[in-house]
Amino acid sequence: MSTPDLLYGEAEEDLRKNVRRLLQERCDPSAVLARCESDEPYDLALWATLAGELGVAGLVVPEELGGAGASARELAVLAEELGRGVAPVPFLGSAVLATTALLECPSSEAREAVAALAGGSRIGTVAVPMTTAPGSVFPTSVSARGGALTGTVRTVVDLEVADLVVVPATDEDGPALYLLDLSSSGVRRTPVTPLDLTRRIGTLGLDGASGRRIASSDSAEEVLQHTLTTAAGILASEQTGLAQLCLDSTVEYVLTRYQFGRQIGSFQAVKHRLADLWAGVSTARATARGAADALATSGGDVDIPVALAQAYCCDTVVLAAEEHLQLHGGIGMTWEHPAHLYLGRAKSTQLALGTAERHRATIAARGGLPAA
Amino acid sequence: MSTPDLLYGEAEEDLRKNVRRLLQERCDPSAVLARCESDEPYDLALWATLAGELGVAGLVVPEELGGAGASARELAVLAEELGRGVAPVPFLGSAVLATTALLECPSSEAREAVAALAGGSRIGTVAVPMTTAPGSVFPTSVSARGGALTGTVRTVVDLEVADLVVVPATDEDGPALYLLDLSSSGVRRTPVTPLDLTRRIGTLGLDGASGRRIASSDSAEEVLQHTLTTAAGILASEQTGLAQLCLDSTVEYVLTRYQFGRQIGSFQAVKHRLADLWAGVSTARATARGAADALATSGGDVDIPVALAQAYCCDTVVLAAEEHLQLHGGIGMTWEHPAHLYLGRAKSTQLALGTAERHRATIAARGGLPAA
Amino acid sequence: MITADELRDRVREFLSHHDPGELDRLEFLRARFDAGLAWVHYPPGFGGLDAARALQPVVDEEFAAADAPDNDPRSNGIGLGMAAPTILQHGSDEQRHRFLRPLWTGEEVWCQLFSEPGAGSDLAALSTRAVRDGDDWVVDGQKVWTSLAHTARWALLVARTDPGVPKHRGLTYFVCDMTAPGVEVRPLRQITGEAEFNEVFFSGVRIPDSQRLGEVGQGWQVAMSTLMNERVAIGGGNTAREDGMIGVVADTWRQRPELRTPGMHDRLLRLWVEAEATRLTGERLRQQLAAGAPGPEGSAVKLAFARLNQSISGFETELLADEGLEYDDWTMRRPEVTDMTARGPGYRYLRAKGNSIEGGTSEVLRNVIAERVLGLPAEPRVDKDVAWKELPR
Amino acid sequence: MITADELRDRVREFLSHHDPGELDRLEFLRARFDAGLAWVHYPPGFGGLDAARALQPVVDEEFAAADAPDNDPRSNGIGLGMAAPTILQHGSDEQRHRFLRPLWTGEEVWCQLFSEPGAGSDLAALSTRAVRDGDDWVVDGQKVWTSLAHTARWALLVARTDPGVPKHRGLTYFVCDMTAPGVEVRPLRQITGEAEFNEVFFSGVRIPDSQRLGEVGQGWQVAMSTLMNERVAIGGGNTAREDGMIGVVADTWRQRPELRTPGMHDRLLRLWVEAEATRLTGERLRQQLAAGAPGPEGSAVKLAFARLNQSISGFETELLADEGLEYDDWTMRRPEVTDMTARGPGYRYLRAKGNSIEGGTSEVLRNVIAERVLGLPAEPRVDKDVAWKELPR
Q: Do A269 and B268 touch (CB under 8 A)?
């Protein structure tokens, strides 16, 4: 167990600055709120800018495939900032899940696809329920016969804006991953009304849709596990970013709201809650950095740092969003205030990629702390 | 499920008043503290007064056996006051455990013994580990052959001052209860250094000691279960009384301690913690009254009200003692202050007669909420 | 004082002359009011018989047994719980005669206009102005979080009549006609997507001085007695085990074994214990009230209720996992009543967040407990002796 | 500035002239000090080389590799962590020369005399008096919670020199000789039965004015810099996973399967997560310090450390059940060092209660975070502009 680097490097701080500036211009909370009940809940123009001008859609894609060749540490910083902006872009599905899966697959189709994702010309996702935790058994909800995929997958993230999807399926040789164009025939996408208005989920129905196999048997299992572990680790940084936003805007609010002739931020009960929240967010950050560093460092222990970060961050971000709402009082309960966007996002990330209990079970297994 | 009577009756309030007055005179915290490292950690003179003048050693013993013929409701009020005084008297062992067990046994030895306990001329206990929960399997640590008892029982409450003990044992006919005079040969009592300085535990070693059987097979099991359930229910009231003491003396302290030119009780963080504690103690009281009423009412559901009261009160009393200490600051950490007596008592009652998890398991079983 | 048996006789006597099967519902209710059998602890002439408050169930049970129509108390909760006792305590006889009967029968629904955008926890800081003009007062300002404003005929209104004195002293209490010109009611959409509440805007609304309750400048005292009655009402229900949100998740747990995990089992049982313990605390409060010795446990119950609803609904979304990611419907609607167990888990999760804010935040409630129940000192105040208009905001 | 390699060379050079196997321990340490290889970030002449603070480990590792004796830092924690930086910052050159070398070598142990029975969280309210008398000050009063007072040669003392001005302004900071007449040290027994700490009584103790640190009336500022150094020291350790109390219960869990239950498993894992997350937070703080950008996370670590130690030890007693009812030994003892993982579960449970009180209560720490880190306003103060002698107490 070597000591992880828990700080941010200079390049990481630069990345943060650029992304934050763009989001401040293009994606303030009122813009996100206005969009979320519209016909275009995703801001694909923003995603195009992130992919094009900033080149961050393919942050971890090698340069020869049109990416930035960065590591999970930079990807985590991007996740922090997108979490901080509750940005309605297909980051998790395309830049994390699909990209990670495709990068691990040796086929030329996979390389082509990942290049398209990196360039922003296409959007991808992976056909697993959003709640699937690392360590889950390989899904059996889709079967493939002669390249024809049949089955149903619930709560697939970013499905409605995706062009292609990596589908875990069982075929004649056992577990496999298929790459599927979502415009193929035999594909049915059913959107679900989501609790999180800033990131959508949908049901993918496959009825003999034709995909290309990009991984099989053990390799398919490994790719999917690696993908889920990476996504869970990166999600911890998204949660840290959102938690920090909730803390920062609450601090801002309690300095401007007067009751009883005083800023409410001068009341000890409020101060102590925010101090505790600050301690929680600081701790979340340490665990999220630990996970990102483990993902970026080959060969070390990854499962425990990722499980630790998720076990800590997924409840901390919900606490942060709940405290944000409570300390805003009545105004936070109104539709026009973005508090509910933060709460919906926080809650959905808590359920995404495994609940805290699920991640604690990983720690129990890996850390030698068996159940009763 | 009929509605329990959760209030205190007039007779109950009178009982409370008398006991509290006596304890204020004879058993203030400094007296308890002075005693606890002495050769006489129990105040047997106080117990004699409680038994004699107040007649409360045999509160639930029928009048024809020299008791007061009262119900578990009154016993619970007595427990509250003794908890409030962290009184070093053998109440739990003698007036609750031994008395309840003996009252359920039809033998004349049992009747004689219970009369002696009621009068205060003798002190009793039951030979089970203090942590034994209602619903536990019948203990097998002592075996009886021809009335000769052999085995070892740990953490028997009030053992060092007891004259007689009811011993659960397995004999030729299965489970049985034996009444044993502790002055018999073949009896070895080993005191244990206790965390709770106000109530002692000891190890009972039996090496062929001669007891009289007072219950056998199913009846022995039922008597022991009833005894443990009763004790657990009454203990909830003891915990409520101690929690109330912790709350009251903390409120008193924060009104007299000045820091930053103000009573520390005027700081919002302190006020809110005490408000929460008050809510917790009020709730504990409702559950404890519910348990006492269920024990006093024949025929109704007893297991859930008792399990509920224990599951709630045993953690609440620890919280109360911990808050009491924390809000007393440094002074509470000193030996001369009684805070540690409350904490030790609270902690030991938390472990006594089953932890909260154990009682929640009873609720799960009785309430149809099965485990995974 | 009148006994339970005497009361029972009175109801039977009344029913022998007023057949609920025959009479028009409203006429039946009016007659019941006039017979003093509405709220029996009210004075004669105002729907009561000066009986003990604890005897009300006796009367209600008799009428229910006779299949008599009731006054649909859920549709006029503020009227019955807050307006009526305030009018009884602070109103003139003329006001009592005008308002109490149609209030009790449900002919006239009431709402309460206290909170403002700038005056939530600090209610006394409110800035809606009432200026005297002849026999009238002219009201301008904005209220918020008003239930039933769109169905109410009358409102309890507190307005500032003197900005030049400290905030608690410059308030006056009125009964406001919600149909008066210049009153505008707009739905207020919440984070659930619904609009349970309203914003109410006043522009030059005229209120006759005869609709003032209490003296000019005494509005704070009158408002406090209104809120006191609200707090007595909370937690007083006689509920059964597993009523409310805990019942919803307990049923899900029983019906869907595939969702169970050891950690969730432990959490479910902890919540069950907390819910049942809180229910008993409310029951104890009810028994104290019935015995004529109301305790302060109502605040404990409201605190616990908020925490519980939030914990249980958060637990529920985690238990349901994939379903917890969904929401039933974001459409803006105007629900008739608020039912925490209706609709989906997402709704419950979001709606419960309001429980620690509405009707006094949990923070304010803890202050109240600390000061009024435990006798702890108030914090140093910076707003007590300053003219309202000089306060920072 | 000097580099790591240059430092390494210096140590090797030093070792080539000072063989730790040959030299007397104290002489070796004195020579190391004089060579500027004691605390390398201190100025030349005072044990250092003006090097970067982050380079200290380089030096320590070289000496350790050579099996050289160290200065036994655990036995003089207050001297090294608090007295030395305070003397360096506020002392005269004469004072630095007198005190720093024997402090670093461990020849003279130090203690800190700040807290009083009436001045805990509100340190500035302290009432120990120092009255000027010629070239001396005469001190009367009482201090409490003093570690090492019975082994210390010197003490950091804050005393009130002017009761007529507001409390923060009437304090002066001294170095006090613990062997001076009138200083009485009494062991203070704690709830664990032990006496880790002392009470210190002053009756007419004379301190020469030359032992004053900082100006008369500037005692508060000097004391704050002492405490700042204490906070930097907290949480800075480079610990391994499962160090501390969590390791004790994790081992018990592994070794005693008969104690395991599903609910305890869930709690254990939650505590493990909290402990490991807190460890990483401390590690991040250490890395920030090493990178020359100390963060405020030390407060978060201290808060979490207190909560964790209390939760874990409470958990442990529950896990052990019958053994949790026992205590190892109530005998009054004077332990040399405080080791939270030594002794039995009952000791850990009781001792951990002090973690949220000693070195700043968790409540005060939350105030500090809220005001200094988050920039939230102070509460209205009633004690800032009042002469100390007029304050209520």
A: yes
